[in-house]
Specification:
Helix content: over 70%
Oligomer: single chain
Number of strands: 0
Shape: elongated
Distance between the termini: 32 Å
Strand content: under 5%
Number of helices: 2
């Protein structure tokens, strides 16, 4: 994958995670756990993509995500 493709993948993951997190706010209580689990998986994949960008290209993505 090229750097452009990897950055595009990273940004798309962020967009998708934001969309899914919005679903948590708007969904029925019975669906909350489903969307929380989906968000958790997106978060894991986003972290992997961020680490790949850092190790492969030396790109450090947004540090605001690393707040304690």
């Amino acid at each position: 994958m090229s750097i452009e493709e990897e950055l595009e993948k990273y940004n798309q993951l962020k967009i998708d995670l934001l969309k899914m997190s919005k679903c948590i706010e708007d969904c029925d209580i019975s669906q909350k756990e489903l969307y929380q689990n989906i968000c958790l998986e997106y978060s894991k994949e986003l972290k992997n993509a961020k680490n790949a960008l850092a190790s492969k290209y030396g790109i450090k993505a947004c540090q605001c995500c690393n707040l304690p």
